[in-house]
Backbone:
């Protein structure tokens, strides 16, 4: 179907139309032709009519017939038994039925009969066209529903693995932009406590990023939509007394809440379609379906983040309780965890890797719980047998972490945190890059904290001195790559503000 109105062949398959024309010519004393709206023959019966059609193409009857606006009108040629009836689709003429009776009836009764037959044939053809239109709409509806379902299915797959708010908003923004090209798109997230709406993503044409903005609860059109939970289409926001400018020009706006039950998680704001047209209810419906998927993903991410926070705070309190046994190692694990995260980031590892290394570093000395206090807290130098006991702590850590499924990927990293780059460390005397990178990172962070912290027997060194010591041991105890990252982070002042 071309854009706009369907043509006769769109509504009735050409083979079906041909059959109709043939059967009509067999069952009635007529030759017939079906013309398109521009007067061109679409289908004609075999006998009689084509020459007539050719002759009459410019005729007044055809012109007038095509101009008819009333479906029930039938015109008769003044001198020939030729009838013309317009064919309609949704109250618009899309063609013309021409009938030529083979034997012209002279009297009024014959004319009446011709007209009845003409109407009967026209009605039959019109029914076929109407049924064709319904079928066409139905199949378009089925295709559209299928496309909508496919789109939502793809979106739910993309969102299902996401627990990161930025990523979720980026996926939703991509999806909205691909199905509804507009000048601006903003995704606002509602703060769970204050209900403040903050723009997580605000993009203009060709991906240009707008500065972030926020709206207090109930302010602006988005605030209103967030509170009511009802979407809005506004043709001219300038006419809306509640509109609050957000830093870029807007005329028309489609504003859809991302709700879960009665809770509004955020808002999808699309403004000014690229084609300049108004937003349609169909587009609103599509964006609402996307918003529903997005709301589920946002809620999952929130739950995930709550569980993660709870988990991390339990781990932190456990580790701090162990560190607290020794006043000189108080907050040691917390600081090693922070420094390790900075080093991993400086090296260029991904956010997920940084987070995992941070957790491993937090747990790196958990095995010290298995070291007797007389050894752990001994103020003097350890004897050789005591040192052997102390060196067991990475293995105790392994033993503890192995019990927790969620820590299984950290076990190796913690086991090797006391290996030396030159192979002289413990417990397995691994060398160089055979030591996992996270262990090499934790080793540097651990040494930095040990050097700068007070001990029973000495004051902690200054940061500058500690950096010198670490640099001297680059390639011996420590991985040169990690030391380079360390020096770079130190020079940028990234170790300021560590827990003290
Ligand atoms: Fe350790
Ligand atoms: Fe340590």
Residues:
């Amino acid at each position: 179907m071309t854009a706009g109105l369907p043509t006769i062949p769109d509504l009735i398959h050409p083979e079906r139309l041909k059959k109709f024309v043939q059967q009509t010519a067999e069952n009635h004393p007529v030759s017939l032709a079906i013309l398109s709206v521009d007067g061109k023959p679409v289908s004609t019966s075999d006998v009689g009519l084509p020459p007539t059609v050719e002759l009459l193409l410019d005729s007044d009857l055809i012109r007038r017939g095509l101009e008819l606006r009333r479906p029930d009108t039938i015109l008769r040629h003044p001198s020939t038994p030729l009838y013309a009836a317009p064919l309609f689709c949704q109250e618009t003429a899309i063609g013309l039925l021409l009938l030529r009776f083979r034997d012209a009836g002279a009297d009024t009764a014959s004319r009446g009969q011709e007209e009845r037959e003409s109407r009967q044939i026209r009605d039959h053809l019109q029914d076929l066209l109407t049924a064709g239109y319904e079928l066409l709409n139905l199949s378009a509806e089925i295709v559209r529903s299928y496309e909508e379902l496919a789109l939502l299915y793809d979106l739910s797959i993309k969102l299902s693995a996401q627990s990161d708010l930025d990523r979720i908003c980026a996926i939703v923004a991509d999806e909205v932009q691909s199905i509804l090209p507009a000048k601006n798109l903003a995704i606002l997230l509602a703060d769970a406590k204050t209900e403040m709406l903050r723009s997580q993503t605000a993009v203009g044409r060709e991906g240009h990023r707008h500065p972030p903005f926020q709206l207090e609860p109930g302010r602006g059109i988005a605030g209103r939509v967030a509170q009511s939970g009802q979407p809005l289409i506004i043709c001219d926001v300038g006419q809306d007394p509640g509109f609050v400018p957000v830093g870029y020009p807007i005329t028309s706006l489609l504003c859809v809440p991302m709700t879960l039950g009665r809770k509004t998680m955020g808002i999808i704001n699309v403004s000014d379609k690229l084609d300049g047209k108004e937003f349609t209810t169909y587009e609103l419906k599509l964006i609402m379906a996307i918003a529903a998927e997005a709301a589920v993903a946002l809620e999952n991410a929130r739950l995930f983040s709550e569980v993660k926070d709870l988990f991390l705070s339990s781990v932190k309190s456990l580790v701090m309780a162990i560190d607290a046994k020794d006043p000189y190692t108080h907050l040691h694990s917390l600081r090693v965890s922070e420094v390790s995260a900075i080093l991993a980031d400086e090296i260029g590892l991904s956010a997920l890797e940084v987070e995992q290394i941070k957790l491993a570093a937090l747990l790196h000395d958990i095995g010290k719980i298995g070291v007797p206090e007389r050894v752990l807290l001994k103020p003097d130098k350890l004897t050789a047998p005591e040192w052997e006991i102390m060196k067991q702590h990475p293995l105790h850590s392994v033993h503890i972490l192995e019990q927790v499924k969620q820590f299984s990927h950290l076990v190796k990293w913690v086991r090797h945190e006391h290996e030396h780059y030159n192979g002289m460390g413990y417990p397995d005397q691994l060398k160089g890059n055979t030591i996992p990178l996270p262990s090499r990172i934790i080793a540097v962070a651990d040494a930095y904290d040990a050097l700068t912290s007070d001990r029973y027997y000495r004051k902690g060194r200054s940061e500058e001195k500690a950096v010198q010591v670490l640099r001297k041991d680059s390639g011996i105890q420590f991985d040169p790559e990690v030391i380079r990252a360390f020096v770079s982070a130190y020079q940028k002042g990234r170790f300021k503000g560590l827990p003290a």
Q: What stands out?
A: Residues 332, 336, 364-365, 446 surround fe (ii) ion (ligand 2) (CB under 6 Å).
